[in-house]
């Protein structure tokens, strides 16, 4: 999957690379989970929201544990998840097809 967005530092559209890093932030019982992408050119980071202010009770515990462990397979799954990419207003192309 190739992911594109306008990079604020480059000032134009760039390819963003999935770093495979999942960031979890817990605030009381509200959870934010991001998957970190990076501009291919200038390395500026872009945190794409997997969950925003989600109730801990709404998350599947097994998946939540995988976020905490920074599971690379889960990071790759989200990086290829069309609905996740669309929610984050990412432009994307399946590799090998334009
Ligand atoms: Zn850039």
Give the strand tally.
Answer: 5
Order of helices and strands: EEEEHHHE
Straight-line distance between termini: 11 Å
Helix content: 10-25%
Helix-strand category:
alpha+beta
| Number of helices, where a helix is a run of at least 4 consecutive DSSP H or I residues | 3
The coarse silhouette is globular
Largest sheet: 5 strands, antiparallel
Radius of gyration: 14 Å
Hetero groups: zinc ion
Low-confidence stretches: none
Task: Write structural notes for this entry.
It is built from three helices and five strands; from the N terminus they run ββββαααβ. A five-stranded antiparallel beta sheet has the order 4-3-2-1-5. It has helices at 61-68, 72-79, 82-87; strands at residues 2-7, 12-27, 30-39, 45-55, 91-93. With 98 residues, the protein is α+β, with helices and mostly antiparallel strands. The longest helix is centred in the middle third of the chain and has 8 residues, at 61-68. It has one domain. The chain is globular, with a radius of gyration of 14 Å. The chain starts with a strand and ends in a 5-residue tail after the last strand. Bound molecules: zinc ion.
Short descriptors:
98 residues; alpha+beta; five-stranded antiparallel β-sheet; 3 helices; 47% strand; binds zinc ion
């Amino acid at each position: 999957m190739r992911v594109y967005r306008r990079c604020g530092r480059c000032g134009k559209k760039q390819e963003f690379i999935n770093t495979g890093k999942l960031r979890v932030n817990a605030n009381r019982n509200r959870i934010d989970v991001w998957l970190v992408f990076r501009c291919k050119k200038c390395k500026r980071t872009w945190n794409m929201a997997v969950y925003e202010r989600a109730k801990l009770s709404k998350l599947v515990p097994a998946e939540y544990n995988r976020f905490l462990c920074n599971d690379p397979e889960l990071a790759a799954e989200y990086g290829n998840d069309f609905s996740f990419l669309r929610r984050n207003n990412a432009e994307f192309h399946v590799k090998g097809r334009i």
